[in-house]
Each structure stands twice: as structure tokens, then as C-alpha cells.
Design a protein that fits this description.
By secondary structure, this protein is α+β, with helices and mostly antiparallel strands. It has one domain. It contains three helices and three strands. Strands 1-2-3 form a three-stranded antiparallel beta sheet. Helix 1 runs parallel beside helix 2. The longest helix has 14 residues. The radius of gyration is 21 Å and the shape is elongated. The model has no long low-confidence stretch (mean pLDDT 86).
Length: 90
């Protein structure tokens, strides 16, 4: 059984790391393992076989996430909040 959630995590890892040789394998016991093509041409297992949710967390932790995009309106709102001084109450 192949999981879209796990395969999407591996695809994100490929994009973030720039290494397209990462491969996911699903075992018959429901565990997922991450493999990478070695210099010799064989597959090396990265980490240990894990259940799907733990596998996704492991794969997401291997490479840093891209910085969040911040729009012009977000920046303007943030600066407005920082420059606004609280009004003293009487």
C-alpha cells in the first residue's frame, strides 16, 4: 500500500535538498523506509523503518523547510502594529 502523505514528504525532501535520488519503500508490515542511491549504485537505507506519521516527521526533519513567504500587506500590518503606541487610559 502506497501512501500519498508519505510520498509527498519524500518529494518535498527531494526538492529541498536538491537530491533526486531519495526513494520511499513501503513494507508489507505497514512501515515505511527512506532510501538513497549510493555512489556504488545500490540503495542505502536512511534511518529505520517507521509508521507513516513518524516517517513523515522524520523525512520533514532531514532538510530545512523553505522560509515562509511574506506579502507586502503582512509587512505593512506588522510595521503598523510595531509603531502604534498604546493609548493611556484615564
Amino acid at each position: 500500500m502506497r501512501s500519498t502523505k508519505a510520498s509527498n514528504a519524500v518529494e518535498r525532501l527531494r526538492t529541498r535538498s536538491g537530491n533526486s535520488t531519495y526513494v520511499m519503500s513501503a513494507r508489507s508490515d505497514g512501515l515505511f523506509s527512506l532510501r538513497v542511491v549510493a555512489d556504488s549504485g545500490g540503495l542505502e537505507t536512511v534511518g529505520s523503518p517507521l509508521p507513516m506519521d513518524e516517517f513523515v516527521q522524520f523525512v520533514n526533519g532531514l532538510s530545512a523547510a523553505p522560509p515562509k513567504r511574506v506579502g507586502k500587506l503582512d509587512v505593512a500590518f506588522r510595521t503598523q502594529l510595531e509603531t502604534k503606541k498604546p493609548v493611556p487610559r484615564s
